Amino acid sequence: MIEYQKLSDGHLLFLPLCPSTNARMRPVRMGKFCRSILTKEARDYIESVGYAIHLIARANSIRPVNEYRFFDIWLILPRRNCDCHNYGKVIFDSLESGKVVTNDKFVLPRYMGVYHDKKTQAVVKVPI
Q1: The pTM is what?
Q2: Neighbours of 91 (CB within 10 A)
Q3: Torsion sign (Cα): 69, 113, 24, 47
Q4: Which of 1-15, 36-50, 97-111 ranks highest by mean pLDDT?
Q5: What are phi and psi of 52, to 5 degrees?
Q6: CA distance 35 to 116
Q7: C-alpha–C-alpha distance, residues 85 and 75, integer Å
Q8: Ramachandran quadrant class, 41 (left: phi over 0; alpha: psi -120 to 50; beta: rest)
Q9: 27-49: burial string, b at 16+ Cβ within 10 Å, e else
């Protein structure tokens, strides 16, 4: 599911592609107000990928990022009309869930490449 590679200047994580930001929230009526909550698919992704990332981070002594850092991201999207910016938030939430970052506000994403293929993966380079 998740592959890991140690680099001289960081760590490389090969993650399955997460649900799009457009598909991660759904409206729910709470009293007279409407709020957005995470869909089951997004919650499952954050929980399962976050747990796997946490195990990798613990096994390889990856210290949590607790200051602003650039994260290099390469995406392999299934269709040409997908917007790469719609996938970041769920990935960052899973990095926070996996305790690689203490707060996902510290993630400064740099989209290094967007490729299109039926394989669905996201590649994230975590700085040291």
Answers
A1: 0.83
A2: 24
A3: negative
A4: 97-111
A5: -65, -40
A6: 33
A7: 10
A8: alpha
A9: eeeeeeeeeeebeeebeebbeeb
- Tens-place pLDDT, residues 60-77: 999 999 999 999 988 888
92-113 pLDDT, tens digit each: 999 999 999 999 999 999 988 8
Inter-residue contact 16 to 29 (CB < 8 Å)? no
The Cβ of residue 90 has, within 10 Å, a number of other Cβ atoms equal to: 24
The secondary structure of the chain, three-state, reads CCEEEEECCEEEEEEECCCCHHHHEEEEEECCEEEEEECHHHHHHHHHHHHHHHHHHHHCCCCCECCCEEEEEEEEECCCCCCHHHCHHHHHHHHHHCCCECCHHHEEEEEEEEEECCCCEEEEEEEC
Taking the C-alpha atoms of residue 73 and residue 113, their distance in angstroms, rounded to an integer, is 7
Structural domains of the chain, with CATH: 3-127 (3.30.1330.70)
Are the CB atoms for 95 and 124 separated by under 8 Å? yes
Identity (one letter) of the amino acid at 47? E
| Nearest-angstrom CA–CA distance, 120 and 91 | 13
Q: Tokens in use for 107? A: 């993630």
